[in-house]
Design goal:
Mean pLDDT: 92
Helix content: 40-55%
Largest sheet: 8 strands, mixed
Low-confidence stretches: 1-26
Number of strands: 10
Structural class: alpha/beta
Shape: globular
Number of helices: 18
CATH superfamily of the largest domain: Periplasmic binding protein-like II
Order of helices and strands: EHEHEHHHEEEHHEHHHEHEEHHHHHHH
Amino acid sequence: MRRRSIIGTSLAAVVAMGLAACGSGGDDSGASKTIHVTLANHVWTENLKKALPEFEKQTGLKVEINQLGEDQLSDQYNVKLNAGSSDLDVMMYRPLQEGKLFAKNKYLADLSDQVKSGKDWDYSDFQSGPVEATTYEGKTVGVPIITEQEVLYYRKDLLAKAGLSAPPKTLDELKAAAAKVKATTPGVAGFVARTGKSPAVTQFSSFLYSFGGDFVDGSGKATVNSDAAKQAYAYYGGLIKDSGPANVSTDMSWPDAMAIFTQGKAAFYTEANSLYKNATDPAKSKVSDTVGFAPFPAGPAGSKPYNIPSWALGVNEASKNQSNAWKFIEWATGKEQTLAQQKAGVPSARTSVWADPQGTENYPKDLVEAIKASTQGGVAHDRPVVVKVGQAREIVGQPIVDAITGKDPAAAADTANDAFQKFLDDEAK
């Protein structure tokens, strides 16, 4: 899934910092003072490039950045990693999109020793969800750099008009509040969210977890037809069918759902926090001055939104410059550089920057509280953790569409579970 980052673009000056000695690892027989780093087009990358001269000055190393769009990035990785190319040292990758594929194929170097080597760098400062998502079979294969959590966007004015004093804290309250707004405010939906069967999976996941379900169980068996999953499909689809926009489309991704919300046509919207400036920027939103944020509402199993790393840094296993590659990652993900990124609007995986007033001063206060709540019990994945992610999303997303269009969500879940189990069995061969 492609998510555009619509967050801050400036970076505060980075304070000079000493680099802890990196641990040994990998084949450095061809070590070079030039580190080849491949990064995605992202505000994080732009911020980092501005601070890069400081790293080069401190270390005497030179960094060559190859910056690409997501499609081009995937194409290059596909070609170079399959060929075992060593001219790629550091990789910016999506842990939940290609992480399992990369780790399973041994494209990512084991960084377990390196992340434990520096007390100043402090691996324990990273949130548990993003750390879990960048770990494979007990080995650290990446360091999270950008995170996302699902939160509730809402309209303060519409709540007041409907006689509601606070945003809903539970899914039952959300359902009742959405119905009340739709009934009392003509032309405005009570709730909007993604509806396309693949795009909706990530945001549906928080509903699934909060009902007590997941895509697979502890043994890796498909569970999208568990009682909890069936309840979650029925709830999500029913909420959109009953309280969503009139004649709602079933192929909406986030730009479509966000547009409905920012044009003033919906009261509630669940979405990734990283997209919040679309709702609060007056240039993008007609309702910017009335938008509020709240933690994801609790279901029968509590409030269990995802807390994931949308991007991470890893080291190419075939690189012959792994020690210097780690020096770059250690600097780029260190506390000072991370705080600078956080101040520029890039949500971080480090706990310390969310506790630092400097790290949160540029975010809406209620959004900061919602994010902090999300990191407490957040789930480390927002889609099935598989190699062929796109195919899996199409399968588990079908019951969402069926529920929205009024079909039996329980029957749809049974059909999807059979297909998903076959998919899992085939992938395990």
